[in-house]
Fold:
Amino acid sequence: MLLCIYEIFIENIYYYQIKKMKNQLGAIFILVALSHFTAQTKEESISEVVVTGRFLELPLKKVNENITIISKAEIQNSPSRSIEEILAQFTGFDIRRRGGNGVQADISIRGSSFEQVLILVNGIRMNDSQTGHNSMSIPFDLASVEKIEVVKGPAARRFGQNAFAGVVNIITKPSSENEAIISGSGGDFGTYSLGVAANFGNEKMSNFIQANSSSSEGYRYNTDYKINNIFYQNEYLIENGNIKLQAGIQEKKFGANGFYSSPKATEQYEETQASIVSFALNKKWTNFNLNSHVYWRRGQDLYLFNRAKPEVYRNIHIGNNVGGEVNGSYSSTLGTTGVGVSLRKEFLASNNLGHRERVVTELFLEHYFSFFEHKLQVTPGISWSNFDTAGNFFYPGLDVGFNFNQHHKIYGNISKVNRIPTFTDLFYKSKTEEGNPNLRPENAVSAELGYRFQNGNFVAKMSGFLRNSNDAIDWMKASENEIWKAENIGNIEMKGFEVEIGQQFNSFFKSYSLGYTFIDNQFQQPENLLSRYVLENLKHQLVAKLENRLFGKLTNQLIYRYNERVSTGSYQILDEKLSYDFSRSNVYILVNNITNSDYTETFGVPMPKRWFHVGFTYKIGL
Structure:
């Protein structure tokens, strides 16, 4: 399986249509070259990043998967207004938004569907059993995020259901610094946001609380929105461990012009609520670590086909997920063994989907071996899942990595994954869609082979990957006049490669990065049938970033994105953020879609044209 990945580079190096991008690529590479020769690199290396795994916390150099870490500094300097917008600025992500500023978005990684990506908040599942459309209902704003950890590739043997193509873990962190932060912004289309956050505590206990409200009149008819968040998190230190609590709720109300059903459905409206409460205990002994938590995640979704006439068509879904898990790891001369167990129950009450529930039990096992003075790392693992409505599933996998020295590393992994249909896939019925209660779970074998290089502040990564899926789930119809039906459409062979480079400087040129992803999705579409999701992936994706700093306080970041979708062609987006730091405050100007491009990301929904924002943050000591 892994040997097939080598063919990707040979088969596709002349195949992909790089000529379409040659002007843009040429300009970007010239810019990168100029910055490389005009700036002096810092002598010290990029600080060692630690990746938070289910069983182990490992330095990034020892991780044998394709990991992306988005730091707080990157988040603060980015021309982004929401978590999904910053994810869109990293290659391999396909963010299919309906509207702007975090209103509604589906997350795809390397050609997956939005149902195949697991979303976590501080390690707690945010995916609900109704639909993956609401997975990004996160109960805090972008400014509250400490970092984002992303696993590109299957991670089901560690995280279970939904980790089919990747995992996104959004991490916040309480502090005892005793300060408050006030933030505000305004922009085109009557857009505004106002937030307040505070950290407080002592040596034993740290607390973080945040509240935010944002609103807009909308960039076109019936795309207005109102979003409110409240979030609290604390951490209490105990001997060799900690106790953590988090609780939050988000409420969204928005016009959904053409978001679902049909572009002609201009009067649609939606209200969603998402809340999360979790309690965690983490404890370390000499050779044994224990991580455990219990949680409750609630989701509510109200949909109106006509916001002025709710009697025409109305859906309301209320879902609750209650669960807990215990994970332990034991270190010995043979390596580190990780064992975990989780149990959750999913409830759904819906006027459309009916009253549904299912119980999911999961067991996890893996062992981390290290040989030849820690140069060779081998991690075999397996997990077992039981769905009381669908049976038993096994997720075996193997990760292997070899460090030639402190600069060069190769890695490879292979894994089998499964995904159980959501309740929407199974039971949804409307005038334009019909679920299928006879759907079979989809499954796949995924593999990746990669290389990482780091020297000082220069980092380069390249990898080839493939995913062979069986019984893939999609929504199909025979003609535009018929309704969408959920079906197991057969086998899909997806393969591709990814290249990323980046460097930091101590000069006017602060940093640059460049990433490119190519995906070839081989699927024999049934004759005379239209596909809703499978043939919507990005084929070519290029992301380029350039960050400059003047006088130590003025920062400017430009991000260029080229996306070519297999079904709707290509588009180019340029975003910019100019910010100035004072001693206790920051002011900024943010411009999205500088070039005023016409584009769509899903279902033909027109995305916003040029959009100006101005904003500030101010810190107050408590």
Confidence is low (pLDDT under 50) at residues 1-47. Residues 22-38 form the longest helix (17 residues).
